[in-house]
Amino acid sequence: MKKLYLECLSGISGDMFVAAMLDLGIDENRLKETLASVPVSGFAVKISRVKKLGLDVCDFDVVLDEEYENHDTDMEYLFGHDHDNGHSHNSKHGENEHDGHEHTHHHHHHHAHRGIADIFDIIDKTQLTSNARAIAKKIFTILGAAEAKAHGATLETVHFHEVGAVDSVVDIIAAAFCIDELGIEDVIVPRLCEGQGTVRCAHGILPIPVPAVTHIVENHHIRLRITDTHAELVTPTGAAIVAAIATEDVLPAHFHIRKTGMGAGKRAYESPSILRAMVIETDDQDGLTNRDADFIYKLETNIDDITGENLGFVMEMLMAAGAKDVHYTPVFMKKNRPAYQLNVICSKDTIEELERIIFHETTTIGIRRVAMERTVLPRKIREFATPIGTAKVKICDVAGDRRYYPEYESVANICRQTGMSYSEVYHIILEGCYDRVDE
After folding, report:
1. Fewer beta carbons within 10 Å, N or C terminal of the chain?
2. What is the per-residue pLDDT across 205-217, written as a single tens digit (0 to 9) for each?
């Protein structure tokens, strides 16, 4: 079972992703031919090799005509904030390492304010397969929803700024082409590593992560790790690509690396901006077909002097703080006291916060902690179109037997919209899943 693993330790952007895919072996000439069909002027594509800390890394560069230049790699403009937008100044590209010379820029502020309909029209006119076209539209829809939420607009009325610029349009179309060419459906992204501070955008100076990124990781349940780097590591385009293609967030315990690709970023940080992508392959071990063992933790404590309402509130807080599961078991303690045993299933990185909540919100004075090895079936989330609406479905494979589990929120939303019963909606979605496979 081949999967794509994205190691986003230095964040992710559209050009970094495309470069990593090219380094994995995507045909450079076919990509250039596709991008030549994009009905947008003012750009050229350059694919080259650059050095990052002595490493040979692929670089994908959308070179803009002067009137479209958005100074995306001008570190003083993006992070210095000590000059007016219209001033000319010198900026060094630093770790980009294309030529090592200083460049003088003047900020023209030529921003393309395209709406989602304009973007879709560009995608439809580009020579792409139907699958690549659908991927590109999905990425832009995710971006549009995040921008709309940030600006109090709707997907239909929001206008893109940076992400509607020529280089962003080309980056996303190129990314969709590469995903389609690679032909791997399962994509693992454990987390996105982001910086901190502020960055200059079309709307002014914004905090990092910028609002579009925070909305994307929130809406699509992507893990985010804030690093000590004072810079924007995750761009909205990069976050949207991950949201559109990621199917898993946990690496298998055992795998083989079949191919590695490294994509260069353009901005100069304290650490080199490199996105590493790996095509990995899992195999059967110990008689378990496509199952991977990992470790999880159980926290438990007995409580005999707390109300039911309090217990319910504690469960809500624990789930919101990252617990994988919470349950109570009725028990009898010493002196025949009726009580409850609180059980919390969690990952190692959430233990400290969950224990803090338990101590703060309950009367317990001690928590037992147990590390447990578990066997986890490979799973992925897919959206299925059904006669009653689109639903997210979890898919698991058990020794060649594929099983489908409609996600609760999708079922519940359709129930609210249609007035149908939960059981009825659940079975309609399930039937649609198997019908699709039979086709």
Report:
1. C
2. 888 899 999 999 9
Distance, in Å, from the CA atom of 357 to the CA atom of 346, rounded to the nearest integer, reads 13
Q: Under a CB-based contact definition with an 8 Å cutoff, are residues 6 and 242 in contact?
A: yes
Q: Is 152 exposed, middle or buried (0-12, 13-18, 19+ CB in 10 A)?
A: exposed
**What is the Cα gyration radius of the chain?**
24
pLDDT at position 7 is 96
pLDDT at 435: 65
Q: Identify any residues that bridge with 156 across adjacent strands, giving them in sequence order.
A: none
Q: 72 and 168 in contact (C-beta within 8 Å)?
A: no
d(CA 134, CA 130): 6
Which residues of the chain are under the pLDDT cut of 70?
A: 66-113, 160-164, 202-203, 268-271, 283-294, 400, 435-439
Q: Could you give the 3-state DSSP secondary structure of residue 285?
A: strand
Phi-psi region of 346 (alpha: psi -120 to 50; beta: other; left: phi over 0): beta
Would you state the pLDDT for residue 355?
94
- Give the tokens for residue 70: 């958005």
DSSP code for 400: T
Identify the CA nearest to 247 among candidates 2, 1, 4. 4
How high is the pLDDT of residue 201? 73
3 state DSSP class of 79: helix
Token pair in block for residue 316: 């809500």
* Range list of β-strands (E), 99-151: 102-106, 114-115
pTM, rounded to two decimals:
0.61
Q: Which residues pair with 299 in a beta bridge?
A: 344, 369
- The pLDDT assigned to 289 comes to 41
Q: Give the strand pairing for 325-332 and 338-346.
A: antiparallel
Contacts of 431 (CB under 8 A, 6+ apart): none
Distances (CA, A) of 113 to 160, 164, 249: 5, 6, 34
Q: Strand (E) positions, 67-155?
A: 88-92, 102-106, 114-115
Give per-residue pLDDT as tens, 135-146.
999 999 998 888
Integer distance in angstroms from the first to the last C-alpha of the chain?
22
